[in-house]
Design brief:
Length: 683
């Protein structure tokens, strides 16, 4: 505990997760290495938007042992350009100041990036007693760490409270955040209860009102746990770098600006991999939390204004991770749905640029190989990596942007983009029934072809996982299957029931997504990763005019409920695989309420198999005039066995197709499903 070189293993302690408390707003644990006969050292932690309060409870001084009981607070830094110092706050208590420049990338070159922090240290039961040099043995501060040793005999330091604030803008702003959020004006419990209230506000926007009585009490508890844990996870992303200055205005440090000032007014968004999140996180926010979505969207618009491009995988700034420019889909989707509160004109400018303007291939922005895409109508094998996945993502983006263009009456652009995404048939191999790459040199499908080989032309999956990746035109894809002598519903079902075979393919080694698919033992439906998350909803969209009662739709309902019931668990291993950016949690929430945005960029939410008897969604702040305050989703006769939808009504009017418009949902009212234990007799 007093290793001045900060290199000994006694600087750290194990803890027991099973004996700890984890909540969205609170953490508590015992540090196992720092115990005496009088007790253990424990820590409690609660957070604010830009800081936290941490309480460290030391055991009382034990005179019977020679064990070193010096009470140390240490801030672990990273060397290099990190800094730290020890001083006092205005009230005279000791404090640690510093800057951590550690990051994993996504930071502009020659950046002034730094996480500035101030930590006020107090004693006493309420965390408000000044700690002065009278209680201190020794201090140290450098680029590696800052630490303070307190006398173990003093009662005032038996409980030490750390009041922590951070800022990406400046040390002065860190102090402003400190005074706003964690000063001695508030107690630990004040902050804890405020954080709890804020999380309750977010999570209670969706209320599970009724679970069918055939579920046992234990099963009902498991359903609540899984649902709200998934909603918590889905609510963690995207995140904001926005701070409030001393005048009460929103300001931010921008990870997107590479020249000139990097501090701007207004909100800024970060930490969202659109490749994952576009399909579920943003469609979920569109329904359950429009105010958060509005601010998030304006944060992305500001990113474009400051850096010249929409980010693809912001963490915190531009990264070229994954393929596609799927932020285009989320922005276009918001334009089509008329989400309020963001700069639509600039947002459209940003997605238009992605669709038409080449970017620096080393910048982590824009569409890689866009020239080849525009020349051929697809990206040929031999020009880029992962060309099938990349092309399919470009089609999806162009579809969504075309819909936004139509909404804004830019019909010329809409028509150009329609021609692009309609070209998906060029990649469909009528002989095998798979979506394949075309060789740049021969103009023919790339050989050899292995339907189970992952990687190469496909991202984090293989041909089976991308076989149905035309969610914007399911009937059109079904016609291609028919022309190939196959039935798409049969092939969708085959994907669920065949062996979970994978070949290493272009990866040359196993990646965790491969093994997770086999562990889940669900054919080629690799729910452990995002590329297939639309697949089960394709069943109900093959014959959309037949509504929820077609044989194909009923098959999809069976598998959707199976996924909800078997692939999500109320345990430490809650998710079946990659819960990236809140996407898998959002899939569970949308599917649980019986709605899914199969192809964002339209108003359509297709029907699935709702999990609960009754759910109420708050529509507060959705920007719709004269709307009801809530959307109630009632699934009559719902149970673990009754997974098949017999009929759907909205505000008393039967729905005969397999989807409902977003604008209708946002008016509020009652969406009713009639459930049954077997497919509808209308099949």
């Amino acid at each position: 505990m007093i290793d001045k070189s900060h290199s000994g293993t006694d600087q750290y302690s194990a803890f027991n997760p099973k004996a700890s408390t984890f909540k969205p707003y609170y953490f508590k644990t015992d540090l196992l290495a720092y115990s005496t006969n009088t007790g253990s050292t424990s820590i409690e932690f609660t957070s604010t938007s830009h800081g936290a309060i941490m309480e460290v409870n030391y055991p009382s001084y034990d005179v019977s042992t020679s064990f070193n009981q010096t009470r140390r607070i240490i801030i672990d830094l990273n060397g290099g350009s990190d800094t730290s110092s020890i001083g006092t706050l205005e009230d005279g208590t000791i404090a640690i100041f510093g800057t951590s420049t550690a990051n994993s990338g996504g930071i502009p070159s020659n950046s002034d990036y730094g996480n500035r922090f101030v930590i006020g240290i107090y004693g006493g039961e309420n965390g408000d007693k000044l700690i002065t040099n009278d209680y201190i043995l020794e201090t140290s501060a450098n680029s590696q760490s800052a630490w303070i040793d307190f006398k173990p005999e003093d009662d005032i330091t038996q409980k030490i409270t750390l009041r922590i604030a951070t800022s990406f803008i400046s040390s002065e702003q860190a102090l402003t955040n400190y005074n706003y959020e964690v000063s001695t004006k508030v107690s630990f419990n004040d902050v804890k209860e405020n954080s709890k209230d804020q999380w309750n506000t977010v999570l209670s926007r969706v209320s599970i009102d009724e679970i069918h009585s055939t579920y046992t009490q234990s099963e009902q508890t498991d359903l609540y746990t899984t649902f709200y844990s998934s909603l918590y996870r889905a609510s963690l992303f995207p995140r904001q770098l926005t701070e409030i200055d001393s005048n009460g205005n929103e300001v931010h440090w921008s990870p997107y600006s590479s020249t000139g000032t990097r501090v701007f007014n207004g909100p800024i968004s970060t930490d969202s991999g659109f490749w994952d999140a576009y399909s579920t996180v943003y469609p979920l926010l569109s329904i359950i939390n429009v105010p958060v979505l509005s601010k998030t969207l304006q944060g992305w618009v500001n990113a474009y204004k400051e850096g010249g491009w929409l980010p693809k995988w912001a963490s915190p700034g531009y990264r070229g991770s994954m393929v596609g420019t799927m932020g285009d889909v989320s922005i276009a989707d918001a334009i089509v749905k008329e989400i309020p509160g963001f700069d639509v004109k600039t947002a459209y400018e940003a997605i238009y640029k992605d669709a038409f303007v080449p970017s620096d291939p080393n910048s982590g922005t824009g569409r890689e190989c866009i020239a080849s895409y525009l020349k051929f109508g697809y990206i040929p094998h031999g020009t880029c990596s992962e060309v099938v996945s990349r092309t399919l993502d470009y089609y999806q983006s162009d579809f969504a942007i075309a819909k936004a263009a139509e909404k804004l009456n830019d019909l010329e652009t809409a028509n150009i983009l329609k021609l692009r995404y309609a070209n998906y048939s060029s990649l469909f191999d009528y002989q095998s029934g798979f979506i394949r790459s075309i060789n740049e040199k021969t103009g023919k499908f790339t050989e050899p072809f292995d339907a189970f080989a992952w990687g190469g032309d496909y991202t984090e999956a293989g041909p089976w996982q991308y076989r149905f990746s035309i969610p914007f035109d399911v009937p059109g894809l079904a016609k291609l299957y028919q022309q190939a002598g196959q039935d798409i519903c049969t092939e969708l079902n085959n994907a669920q029931t065949m062996p979970s075979i994978y070949h290493l393919g272009g990866y040359g080694n196993q990646i965790h997504e491969m093994t997770e698919m086999t562990v889940n033992c669900w054919g080629q439906y690799s729910h452990s990763n995002q590329p297939v998350h639309h697949m089960l909803y394709m069943f109900g969209s093959v014959y959309p005019d037949e509504g929820v009662t077609s044989t194909c739709a009923s098959t999809g309902q069976y598998y959707i409920r199976k996924a909800l019931s078997t692939l999500y668990k109320p345990t430490d291993e809650m998710f079946a695989g990659d819960e990236d950016n809140g996407e898998m949690g959002a899939w569970y929430i949308l599917s649980s309420i019986g709605l899914y945005s199969l192809s964002p960029g339209t108003e359509d939410y297709v029907f699935g198999s709702p999990l609960f008897q009754k759910v109420t969604i708050s529509l507060e702040g959705n920007g719709i005039e004269n709307a009801a305050s809530d959307l109630i989703i009632q699934a009559h006769d719902n149970s673990a066995e009754n997974v098949y939808v017999q009929s759907v009504k909205f505000n008393g009017t039967p729905i005969t197709i397999n989807s409902i418009k977003y604008s209708d949902l946002m008016k509020g009212g009652l969406l009713e499903f009639q459930m049954g234990s077997s497919p509808s007799s209308k099949n």
